[in-house]
Amino acid sequence: MAEHVLNAEGLNCPLPILKAKKALKSVPQGEVLKITSTDPGSVADFAAFCNQTGNVLVSSSTEGKIYKFEIKRT
Amino acid sequence: MLDKVSQGDLENAKSMSIIVTKGTLDWAYPPFILATTAAAMDVKVSMFFTFYGLSLLSKKLDLKISTLGNPGMKMPMMGMHMALPNIVSAVPGVDRMATTMMKNLIKKKGVASIEDLREAAIDLEVQMIGCQMTMDLFEMEQKDMIDGIEIGGAATWVDIATKSDINLYI
Known about the structure:
The complex is a heterodimer.
Chain A: E1 4-8, H1 15-24, E2 32-37, H2 42-53, E3 56-63, E4 66-72
Parallel strand pairs in A: 1-2
Antiparallel strand pairs in A: 2-4, 3-4
Chain B: E1 15-20, H1 29-40, E2 44-49, E3 75-77, E4 80-82, H2 86-89, H3 94-108, H4 114-123, E5 127-131, H5 132-137, E6 150-152, H6 154-161, E7 166-169
Parallel strand pairs in B: 1-2, 1-7, 2-5, 5-6
Antiparallel strand pairs in B: 3-4
Helix pairs in contact in B: 1-4
């Protein structure tokens, strides 16, 4: 299983969401997209994004100034 | 198969319409940010461009801001936040300077350009409708506008709005 990664660091709202949407298109169902961002707003936004689209937010964490998300495509 | 499902085909898709009435650089952001984000969240989005908003459909975008009559616009400058007095805003060249400053800030802060957001909206199959009456009024032609848009009037928007979960006027 190939790893699916999206670097959204340095991007501001709504670009991390738009890039994630695009990236998820090439992620097979059931597999996970790993995202990193620096936008503090993306913490709430990725939760909302998953809430609406039905994709699963497997994890959301912070490492220094980097926000990390794992989204499972459904 | 799932990849081919566009947002319009989703049975449970929510829908949103936005009336876009303003054509300045700053006011172009809210409609395009909300439209692209909603579309990315599987919401079916329609944008109706009227009056000054119609210029946002022009092939070539040349967006500007004006500080005139805008005391709420406080730009970070020399370590503080400054709003310009109207008498300064009215000086020739000040709006151009403010526009350049804003565009530099947009780049520096990783904010998308309106051109990028508009392209994203097209990719995400956002429906864009230009107002026929505005085209007549300001003598604008469809050949000067981007491809893929539709032309319609108030009734077109009302028809969409009555079926939409969210209707915004910006």
